[in-house]
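PROTEIN–LIGAND DATA SHEET

This sheet pairs a single protein chain with one bound small molecule, pyridoxal-5'-phosphate, given as SMILES. Inputs appear in the order they were entered. The predicted three-dimensional arrangement of chain and ligand is reported afterwards as a token string under its own label.
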Amino acid sequence: MIQYSTLSNLECSETGKLFPVDELRNLSPEGAPLLARYNLQVAARTLRPDYLGGRRADMWRYHEVLPAPSEADVVSLGEGLTPLVAAEWLGARLGLPRLFIKDEGKNPTGSFKARGMSTAITMARHLGVKEVAIPTAGNAGGAAAVYASRARMGAHVFLPEDAPGVHKVECVMAGANVTEVRGTIYHCGAIVAKQGPEKGWFDLSTFKEPYRLEGKKTMAYELFEQLGGELPDVVVYPTGGGTGLVAMWKAFEEMETMAWIGSERPRMIAVQAEGCAPLVKAFKEGKEKAELWENPDTRVSGLRAPKMLADFLCLRALRESGGSAVAVSDEAIFEAQREAGNAEGLFMCPEGAACIAALGDLRDRGTIRFKDRVVVFNTATGFKYSDLVSTNVPVMDPLPE
Ligand SMILES: *Cc1c(COP(=O)(O)O)cnc(C)c1O
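PREDICTION REPORTED AS:
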């Protein structure tokens, strides 16, 4: 018989201590992120690459390793199974003929945050939550608002006042309570941490909620399926809180346990903005944790994350994979965004474009080689950031009749 989910426990990422999954949890008692664990022996009987053909065409096709107790519990808008686009023109220019872009902009809400909120809200509803709260740079708040609305929950979203306007709009349209904060996402987080317990809101903050990671890890399962049963040589990922990186790393481990793959792993490369690069700094200095980045200064909102709760998990994934961490300037990011649009017709978000901007250097330094199969993550659609693009086109009057 197919077991819809084989979820068994939550495990503290620092101590390895196990906790039951039938009650609401945020961080472990030690203050570390909790990771979902499954009975992978059972999952492996029915979750097999050659059995996936007839399954639903979204991320819930991997339901054995996702947390919903049954299909009826799933809160979904069809997230996942986004296209893996061959970027031949861009690749040719960069000397990387096997370059692909995983276009997460095709998700509901226009960003990959939809994946994580689908799993988080599914479990929150299952465990009886009525109201959720989230600090956000933008996309996570939008996705939280939308999925909460589908689950008939109240949502309270706190975002920096300089976040792109579209994020406020999508939250308001989904019926969420939105508050602008004169500060960074870090300050928003402090407000949620203080007000949440007083008001009975369940905190959905990055890594303080264990199941967002589970939705995001499906990106790795999809790469394997879309590359015909292989993993890429290199994954280049725009890193804010680091959930995507940690989630994919976790997925590779599950895939190995289920005998989908062996011990091989892609080299994981984190890209940040020069004006907010706590992970790059820690990586270069050989540290195990990242420090708070004072005064983040970048126009790329998804990369404006000065403090990372799961820094140690990110750094471990980068190092164990033989990967790297690099920072690029805002100027290079917006230039790369234009170049990707011109070369591939793909309107990338600035975060995704940051990865494109990093490729030339990575190639020159030999971190990425000519023969490598490289996957860049475009984590959102560029349409959500159109206010950041200046067009400067001519204007003309109608012709005389
Ligand atoms: C949230 C976000 C990121 C950073 O994601 P993490 O996986 O938490 O590092 C990158 N790009 C966009 C567009 C985002 O919304």
